[in-house]
Description:
alpha+beta; 4-stranded mixed sheet
Amino acid sequence: MDNEIIISGQNMELTESLKASVQSKMAKLFTHDDRIIRLRIELSYKPNKSHHNEFWAKGHIEIQGPDMIITVASDDMYKSIDELIVKLARKIRRRHRLERIKRKAC
């Protein structure tokens, strides 16, 4: 099955190197759960007066059951992407752990 990763950008140009970086890093999430249907990654630049947390990365995992959505903001786009991957992987692992607990309880 071909894993689908959709990358979009708001208020910024998506360079090929940025797309390739997101593709390679996000592809690792498919190893955590084979029920993942699609990953939607939205990268955006939201300027603010304090110049903190201007780069936003939003991850939307379409999976069997409720979808998972995480948003991360930082002062660097690559840092936002890395934090997003960590949080998405943690959420997937937590979901697995809760499913195992639920199965044992039945």
